[in-house]
Every structure is written in structure tokens, then in C-alpha cells.
């Protein structure tokens, strides 16, 4: 299916997602993309066999987490947090950088830009 | 409770399903992808195999007529065999025997067409 | 009054060959919390898409996971074909379906063996793997490799099944079905199996839908979702109904997988009888045009989602794979708390975990 995603303001994200949730949509996944110096996060929902996509453009800080609406989003949001370094606000469960990465692994290996830095001798912030 | 009994009794009278491997080997299927071989006499060093290889295990040098292949990086997908314009590459059905040392296959073509393994 | 203690489960564990780590907080024998950790086999395959051209990536995505490798390649190829507007020949669609269903059978049989092994039923484990070997032989004889069969390319398939092979496959499948029927009684009625699975790890229909579970995990809970009914590849020409069980416990998921094996055998028979003659691939010229595409299909573990963003060159901008196990992790975390420690291996295996898939 060719993707036609609709851009959503970050401030409206939660109300949009809530609309999908109340409309009986199933959460499929989130996809993070590297743009020049920003990130694009695509949210994919499904009802029956049909997909709908919305996306936000973010600089990687204070993205509202949708894991309080769809609790299953916490796995993918933790993954994006660790592989891309995007910070989510209000994650239902924050694995603190232990979900996909280990203590000695590189920080945000899939991101083109680095926004989380390793503290000296410590783990992710 | 005794659902398994039928297979237990039928297995008692049957021959073993497994083979006594080193003494008895299964015949490989005709299209088995065992290992890659190059008939260097026919090779024209076009470099097609190097370009299509997904694991970058083939290096072709046209100037010095050298075809080098790393069998330990090869994933035996067989794309190079399909794309080879001279059909000098071929997949043999037998697997390469195991070894304790990694090596490269180094094939050169001179006028007298000699073959050198490394 | 009892104290809580934390027990590490994995990454090395006798019942599970793949590395998943779970921190289990237990109170006596009861699990109260579970925290997973992955990343032991993360290979960065998604990033590799920016370094290899789109034809070479077929062989890379097949190595995301060994058990459903054929279907990974199929989904990737379908995504690229949709982006480029390529229509594959009908025979290629049928061949893809046949190999995908063979993969489903061998994946479910492998799972059934491991599952039996998890609660100590070694005999069942050996019987199922004995049957599975016949399927592996079919895969090897038709494609050249046992597991990573590398048959899919953008524009069709690489290998063909001739009429002699088709006859041989049907004969082998009859044999497999007969042996499976013996096993079927054991799986459905055996005291040991029932004792360890009935009522264990119950996931209700609402929870399964809400947590985004897919595949047998969702079907076992009564969620009627099977992407094969959308008719990709040759499923539009075949006649079948998705298999759904109501109970939502480990036993129901067990039944779904067991019945899916028989369904797959039936689908292969239908496909072999209806398969038309013709080309097996079409030449594909040029690079994929710039655009984004999502392609989904039903793997043995559930729905796999491929997101591909192309920029018009031969390298892809972004490849993202949402594998079925990743979608089933929240459901696993839901059923683990409240269970007994002895049931944890059974519960982990009941989602049919493929950790290499999850981490890519």
C-alpha cells in the first residue's frame, strides 16, 4: 500500500491518537525516519485490514508518548528512544536504555544526528 | 493417557529414521547449492559477479586477470551464477569440507592458464 | 507475608535457543512483574538497506529470521514491486504461496517440538521434528537450500517446480498428513499436554486486540485477523477460512497452530492443482521511484509490516520491519504477571518467539 500519511501537529497528536483508539482502531506500529536534522515519526493504525497513517515532524525532544492510550506502543517507543535517541514524555514503562541496547553499546546507532549523549561512566540519560 | 502408544509400537517395528552419518551419506539433491566453482579458462573478468553479490565476497581484477573469492563470507545465494554472461560460474552440489583455517580462493588466468589455490 | 525476589530468565535458557532476557520479579512461586531486555542479536539490518542496492537487499531481509525467511523476502519483494508498478506472473504468485505455506508448516512443527520440549515431552518433540524433516527435504529439492531458500526476487521467483516434483510433493504431503494425524491426537487429548496448557496464560479477545497481538496469539483469543484473506500472492485464487479459537489460553493457541498445519497442506494441494503454466519472473528495469510503501503479509507468527521509503536511487532511504514477535511482546508481558514460575517457559514459547526477528 502506497503510504499517504497526514501530518499532525505535535500538540494535537494525543487527541488524534485518542480518536483512532476510540474508533476501534488497532495499533500497528510507529516508524522513525531520519530527516535532515529532524525526525519524522509515522504512526500506523489498522481497522480490519485497512491501514491509516499519521505522522509528526519533531526535533527529537519531548515527543508525547501514546503509550498511555495504546499500552502496546511502549515497546516500539522504547526501541525508537534507544535506536534514534528521540525522547518521549510520559512513557508508560521506561526501560531506561536496557530494552534493545546494552551497557556498552553505541548510543542511538540508527540516528544521523546525536541528541542523547552518554554521561561519563554511566548509562543513557 | 495412551495416545502415544500407537506411534510407540509402530516405531518399534520400523527402521531408524536417522542415518549413521559418517558411514552413510544422503545423496544431495540435483539443485543443491553446495559450493561455488569458477572455470577460470572461460572467465572474461567482466566483474558482474562482484557487482551483484549481496555479501561482497567476490573480487575481480580485470587488469591482472585475478578472480578472488572468500568462501566464508559467501551466502550461497547463487545470484552470480545466474548473472554470469559466460556461464563459467557454477554451483556444485557437494558442500565444501570443514576446515580449521580460513582461506581465500585465488584464481588467475595467464596465457598458460594456471590455477593457484591459497 | 513473603518477600519479592528477582530471577533472571535467559539469555541462555535450556528451553529457548534464542537470546531473550527477562527479569522476573517473583513472590514465592508467583510472577508479579516481568521486564524484557533484547538486543543480544541486533545486527543493524535496517541500516544496511542504505548500503546495499535494492536487489541485494532481498538476500539480506531473508536473513532477518531463518524460520520465516521466505516470507520476509516475499513481503520485501511485494513492497518494491508495488512501488515500481511491476505485475508478477501468476505462476510466480502460486510458487510464492507454495513455498510460504511450506515454511508455515515447518515453522509450526518446529514450534510444536520446542513447545513439547518446554514441558518435558521429549517424545513428542522427536516425532514432530521427524515429520518436519520431510518438509525440509521438499524445500531443499525445490530450491536448493534447506532453510534460507532464496527463491524470491523483485519481479517473481528464481526456481520453478516441475510436474514431476509436484507429484512427489503431493506424495510426501500425504505421508506428512498421515503421520500428523497420529500426533494430532496427542496434542489435542494428551493428559500431559492438557495439564500444562489448558487455562494457562489466558488472553481475552479485548486484550488481544488492544495489545495489538497478531497471528496465532490473536487467533487463539478469537480475533478474526488473517491477512491471507486480503488476497495477496495466490491466496485470492484459493479457498480457505481463517482458523480461530475462542478460549485464549495456551491450549487454544496450540490448536490454532496445529489446525493451521492441516490448512497449509490443503492450501498447497489446491495451489499445485490450480497452478497455470507460464513465466516465473519478469525483468525489472531501473530503480524504484521515490515514494513510501507499506506491505504486509501473514507469516507463521502473524502480521509482518514492511515500510520502505525510496528516494529514486538504487539504495533505499529507510527500511523498517515490524515483525510479528515484536507485536506479541506486549501480550506476553500481559500474561506473564500472575503466572507460576514453572509456566514461564510455556508462556514464552506460546507466543512462538523469534528473537532474531524482533531485533533485526
TrEMBL record, chain A:
It comes from Thermoanaerobacterium butyriciformans. Residues 16-90 form the NADH:ubiquinone oxidoreductase 30kDa subunit domain. This is NADH:ubiquinone oxidoreductase subunit C. SUPFAM superfamilies: Nqo5-like.
Automatic annotation (TrEMBL), chain C:
Keywords: Oxidoreductase. Residues 121-282, 287-360 form the NADH-quinone oxidoreductase subunit D domain. InterPro entries: ComplexI_49kDa-like, NADH_Q_OxRdtase_suD, Ni-dep_hyd_lsu, Ni-dep_hyd_lsu_Ni_BS, NiFe-Hase_large. It comes from Thermoanaerobacterium butyriciformans. The lineage of its organism: Bacteria, Bacillati, Bacillota, Clostridia, Thermoanaerobacterales. This is Ni,Fe-hydrogenase III large subunit.
